[in-house]
Amino acid sequence: MTDDMVIAIGAEAIKTTIYLAGPMLLATLIVGLVVSIFQAVTQINEATLTFIPKMLAVVAVLAVMSPWMLQILSQYATVILGGAHDWIR
Fold this sequence. Notes:
mainly alpha
């Protein structure tokens, strides 16, 4: 296993992680921003008010994006496990 192979595997792992976590993080960011604006406008400062909408947003994103996320994860696993014979040499 060469240094280039390790770097390529690490880069692919980071890219896959960003693809999988990105939609959930983006949804959480948007919902948090909307709730923060709502709290600023209405002057309601309740800490639990931000938690439940963010949870619901993550669940909704998972429900909608799970087929795509599973496809990305299976492609990554296929590439990693398919290239395992090259690592042994």
